[in-house]
Amino acid sequence: ATVSEPAQKCCTENIQPFLTSILEELMGPVSSGFTEVRSLFDKEVNEIIQDFRKTNDTTKLKENVDQFMNLPFNSVKMEPCYLKVNLLQELLQDLKSRFKVYHIDFVIQRTQNFMQELMENAVYTFEQLFSPSRQADSAKVATTIEKVKLRVLK
């Protein structure tokens, strides 16, 4: 009871007015990181489609899809996504001094983990939706892949 009122006043005067702007600042790098995940997924599926259209080889298609399933664990390909979130390091430094925000690395790491998790979910969903169509007529496979990609991106 003794601490409640001063704590409430402190939050109302010193923190609450800044919350919206802080959230907006933090969401810039986070949003751009997740947008990069989406772009990477799109690019990789487009490469599978283009390769299949060139070769029309279902064995190669299976190899490409199997390789695609490892995308979330491919640190080289995921790196551009992670780098977008590293901008949080600078933004959080300012918050650290103003609001005593600690564990900046943890915030960045957790965000990157969520990005990897999102990619895992996307490639898994892609595989689940595409798998039944894998044996379909080869003329329809590229169109099916495109439809599945669009469905996952929704």
Automatic annotation (TrEMBL):
Residues 9-154 form the Niban 1/2/3 domain. Signal peptide: none annotated. InterPro entries: Niban-like, Niban_1/2/3_dom. Belongs to the Niban family. This is NIBAN protein. The gene is Fam129a.
